[in-house]
Amino acid sequence: MNDAIAETAGVGVLERMLHEGFAAGDTNVVDELCSPDLIEHQFGLAGTGAQAIAKVKRAISEVHAGLPDLTFTIGDWAEQGDTVWVRAEGVGTNTGAFMGPPTGLKVAFTVIDIARIQDGRIVEHWGVPDRFALAMRLGRIQLPR
């Protein structure tokens, strides 16, 4: 499905947020791609307007600092009306503080993003990064037995 992403404007907005924002660490992309009235539902980032924008920018900075070589691959996506769903796989090396001190470990994790997009901007967002798998792979918690 990756070939069709460029043809789908809504999916392209989320793809840019992942690649330019979280992977490259560019917090300016938030101002371009998010409505100033953003409604953010993601755990730890929830808020509205300027508060939500600030939290998303902080998250981008923290993720990029902890996983500076992070890359994302869009696996699946769907779009209906103004709502877009994306499943992405992130891979990066933990060389900076993230969920604790650097481990040097290469980790992979899944992110599911759902967003309402209007006029090319995210107006409402639900993000579900697999923090549990990420914490296990970083050695922060033990693998269930």
Automatic annotation (TrEMBL):
It holds the Pfam family SnoaL. InterPro entries: Cyclase_SnoaL-like (IPR009959), NTF2-like_dom_sf (IPR032710). Gene3D superfamilies: 3.10.450.50. PANTHER family: ESTER CYCLASE, POLYKETIDE CYCLASE SNOAL-LIKE DOMAIN. This is Ester cyclase. It comes from Microbacterium profundi.
